[in-house]
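User: My instructor asked us to take a sequence, write out its structure as C-alpha cells, and then describe one feature of it. I'm not sure where to start. Here is the sequence I was given:
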Amino acid sequence: MKRTIYISEETFNELTKPKKKKTSHLNPDKWYEDKADFSISSSEGDLGYAHVVGGDAGMVCEEANDTDLHKYIESYLDYLEREGYDINPRPAIELNNEPQDDVMIRTGYYDPDERKVVVFTNGRHPKDILRSFAHEMVHHMQNLRDEHKDWGTGGDLKDDEVLRNLEAEAYEVGNILFRMWTEELKHTKALNESTIREATEDDVDLSSFKVQTELNPKIWVNDLMDSRVRLKLLDIAQDFVEFLDVTWVKPEDTIVVGSIANYNWSRYSDIDLHIVMDYSKVDDRKKFVENYFQSKKKEWNDTHDKISIFGFPVELYVQDKDADNASSAVYSIDKNKWLKKPSRSTFTKKDIDSFAIKKKASKLMTDIENIEDDDKESNDEYKNRKLYDRSSDLIDDITDTRKKSLSATKDEMNTDNLVFKVLRRNGYLDKLFKLRDKTYDKMNSLK
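Assistant: Let's start with the prediction itself. The C-alpha cells for your sequence are:
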C-alpha cells in the first residue's frame, strides 16, 4: 500500500540522483518530494513513495499551474476551523495533475485509512477543483467523527445505503460550506495579495533572549539592589497598597521577580513588582479576591503606564502568599535580600528550541493578523461575535499554555514562555487584547 512519507533535504540528496524538483509548501518546514523508484523500510514495512505531502500540518503539493490553489486550500481549512469544524489532524492532500482521457473522469476521492484527500486537477477550473476539495473534506470530518465507521462496500450508490448517506451529507454540507466560504472571501478579499499577511519564522527575532554575563548594572550593585531603585520601588509599592484599599490586611512582603532579576534580562524586560498578601485574610472567597486584585492591578497599570526605572516599565501585581512562584530569581525589597538567588548556569546548561519557538510564534502572529483583517470587514453582530470568540479563545490558549508550562517545568526559558514573550515584545498580545475588547463593543452596540 502506498504511504505518505516525509524526507529531509539531506535524505533527499542521498536517495535521489539526479536531484528532482523541489516542491513549495505552506508549512515553513523544508520538506522535499521526489518520484524516483525507491523505498524506505520501517517497523511498519515498506513505505513506498506516495505523490503527496501532508500530515498534521496539512501541507500541499504545488502543481505547475498559474493558480495558487494551495493558498485557497489553506484559506478554506482555516475557515472550517473558525466555524468550529473538527478537521485536525488535517488530512494529507494530493493534487493529481495527470491527464485523464475519459469523459466520466474522477474528480476526487478520500482515503479514510490514510486520511488523505485526492483531487484531480488536470484541465479543470480552479473553482471546480476547490469545490471537489470541499466535498472530500466532509468525508474527512466524517472519518474523524468515528475512526471505525463502516464506510460501506465502496460500490454503487444504489446498492449501498451507508455510502448514499455519506455522499448525501458530503454533497449538501460541502456545497453549503463552500458557498459560505466564497461569500466570505468576496466580502473580506482575504486572498488579495495586498491584504494577506502571513508571518513566517523569519519575522521572529530571538536575539533579545540571549543570556547576559551579569545582572543589569543599572538595577543591581554588588549583588544587591541599587538603593535608589529600591527606595523608589518601595514608594510605588506603598502607593499601590493604599490604592488597593484593603486596610484590614497588611502585605507580607514586596518582591521583584522575572527577567529583570536574572541573567536573561533584556531591553524588553519589565520590573515585576509583586505585593505578597494572604488572600484568605482578605476574604474567604479566594476567586473573588483574585478577580478583585486583578481588576485593581489593571486599573493601576493602565493609569500609571508611564512609570519606569531607567527605561524599564514597572508592573504591579498582588501575589497570594501560597502561590507557586515559577521565577528562578526572587528579591525582597522589604528585607533587601535575595529569597531565591539567580544563577547564570541555569540558562547556560540548556539551549532554547529556536525552531519550535519561531514556528509557534509565527503561527500565532498570523492568527492574530487574520483576526485583525477580518475585523476590518465585519459589520454584523454574528461576525463580531465570532471574532470576539476567536480572540478570547486565542488569549485563553496563549496564557493558559504559558502558565501550565511554567508550572510544569519551572523553567523561564521553556518554549511556551518564550513564545509568549515574543508575542508581547512584538506588540501582538496588546493587539489581540484590543481586538477582543473592540469586537465586544461592536457586538453590543446598536446603530
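For the description part of your assignment, you could build on this observation: The chain has three domains: 9-188, 214-343, 351-443. Try explaining in your own words what that tells you about the chain.
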